[in-house]
Amino acid sequence: MKKLLLLAGVALSNFVAIAQQNQSVVMTSKFLEAPQKRNINLNQLKADKVNAQQATANKGTAGGSRWYNFVDMLSDIDPNVANNDHITWLWHKADMLSMYGTTLDTVWVRSFGTSLDPSTVLFNTSALYPGQIAIKSTDAYKVDSAVVYGFYERKAGSTTVDTLKISFIYGYGSTTNMPVYYFTGMMPSFGKDTVRFAHMFQDSVNNIAAKNTGVTTAVVTVNKLLTAASVNDTLSNGMNYFKIAVPTFNVPANGIVGMSVAYKYGATYPAYSTMYTGTAYNYNAFTGLWYEQNASGFPTYVDGEYNTGFLAPQPMASSSSWFGDYIPTWAYTAAYGLEYPYVDIKLSCTTCNITGVADVKSTIESVVASPNPATDVMAISFNTTENATTKVAIMNMLGQEVDAKTISAVANTSNKVVFNVANLNAGIYLYSITSNGQTVSNRFVVAH
Q1: Rounded distance, CA 29 to CA 49, Å?
Q2: I want to staple 226 with a disulfide (CB 3.0 to 4.6 A). Which of 23, 90, 162, 423 is the partner?
Q3: Inter-CA distances, 421 with 222, 368, 414, Å
Q4: How far apart are alpha carbons 338 and 240 in whole angstroms?
Q5: Under DSSP, is residue 47 helix (H, G, I), strand (E, B) or coil?
Q6: What whole-number distance in Å separates Cα of residue 387 and Cα of residue 85?
Q7: What's the pLDDT tens digit per position in 17-67?
Q8: 364-446: CATH topology
Q9: Residue 415's beta-bridge partner residues?
Q10: What's the rounded Cα separation, in Å, for the pair 103 and 289?
Q11: What is the sign, positive or negative, of the torsion defined by CA atoms of 118, 124, 127, 129?
Q12: How would you classify the pairing of strands 273-276 and 96-100?
């Protein structure tokens, strides 16, 4: 069944999803095991980088920087995500073969992309990111740098210099480089009839993100050269990581960041050579790293959020309705493994406060949620330093509000709000208290 992309209610007849169920099944079989003596351990990977990347912020002050990684956020709320890793080769043309297990086949991923929406509710929740800056939809910000993860392998003795091509765009809407498109009829796959995403165009010549027609905002491209020494740029688990400094790249309020990654081999080769024999490398090679949110299932769609993975598969005929576009995760009519690429993007904002703070005055103190775990009811008690209308809410781990109450909190007195949680599904939830410009949040468990 084909899905039509629609823009502003007008059908784009030349923009029809080619990712049918049979094609998706073929794609999911073309994955790789981690190279010998290396492994993929998401928890260790996160631990390795946390000290170097931890942004600092002083409570009550505005401005700062922060690293964002959508997969890390997903794994924070659902540890099972850490088990859903996949890797596969990248190659810049559909003329290189590789062993995939016991099968010799074309390297099928030409490039991949991701869109990052820093205004996502859970990115700005102090329960998950205490002390980090919170970029809201009303905030302008800057892209500082990025990190690409994967496995870089080289032919023994090779002196060839290869290139990772990373490009950046931003937008939100038809007059930007990331117009908002949507699919309809998606209820069976995603639980919503309409699924929206900020689209990424592909420059098929340069294998990077492309500008939208009529838009003058430039695509920023960074070339990261890979040499024999680059093989040693690894974390403790043997995974390669490559840091990229991004030239001046300012994003206006309400903007979403798009990032693409491609690999370019640095020498000539006979077409349809074999890159990897299963035991040895005839040519230098690079894999990306991806995660699947729900193992062997579709990712979870959340209205109003625009974090999306993209692929540029190959071969892709110029007559294809997807030619010149990155295909979003939401286009596939069967579950597949390459949903979200594992990349870090560092953003900075000169005016943003930290998570949970809308102004510099702290008003919420002595917060206690009990019992935790809760079975039937949960009481949240707290003090405020001044009289204030206060909202107490419960959210699921998608950031969706499931219950809320508003009270007139009395200063320097224990205030209490009680929620009935008997009808909530067992699992992890968030509660938040918002009073006089400050929000405090934390996790609790419902156990029946």
Answers
A1: 31
A2: 162
A3: 50, 16, 22
A4: 19
A5: helix
A6: 49
A7: 333 322 332 344 466 655 554 567 787 777 777 644 543 333 444 579 999
A8: Immunoglobulin-like (2.60.40)
A9: 382
A10: 21
A11: positive
A12: parallel
- The label of the residue with tokens 């009529």 reads 214
Determine contact, residues 96/85, Cβ cutoff 8 Å: no
Contact 317, 323 (CB under 8 A): yes
442's CB contacts (< 8 A; 6+ apart) are 126, 127, 367, 369, 430, 431
Strands (E), 60-95: 64-68, 85-90
Considering the entire predicted model, what is its pTM?
0.81
Other C-beta atoms within 10 Å of 97: how many? 18
Q: Please give the Cα distance from 198 to 169 (Å, whole number).
A: 11
Token digits for 357? 């703070």
Q: Which of 171, 166, 197, 178 is nearest to 17 (CA)?
A: 197
Output Rg (C-alpha) for the chain, integer angstroms: 23
Residue 416 tokens, joined: 């209490």
Render 161-223 in DSSP notation, one character per residue.
-EEEEEEEEEE-STTSSS-EEEE-S-HHHHSSS-EEEE--EEETTTTEEEPPTT--PPPEEEE
Q: What is the pLDDT of residues 182-241, one digit of tens each?
A: 999 999 999 889 999 999 999 999 999 999 999 999 999 999 999 999 999 998 888 999
What is the residue type of 170?
A: Y
Say how far apart CA 88 and CA 90 lie, in whole Å.
7
DSSP 354: B
**Residue linked to tokens 């099968």:** 103
Place of tokens 């690894």: 234
| DSSP assignment of 357-394 | BSSS---EEEEEEESSSBSSEEEEEEEESS-EEEEEEE
Tell me which amino acid residue 52 is.
A
d(CA 282, CA 436): 63
Residue in this structure with the two tokens 């224990």, named with its chain if needed: 414
- Contact call for residues 352 and 134 (beta carbons, < 8 A): yes
The tokens 């000539």 sit on which residue?
A: 268
Domain residue limits, the chain: 4-349, 364-446
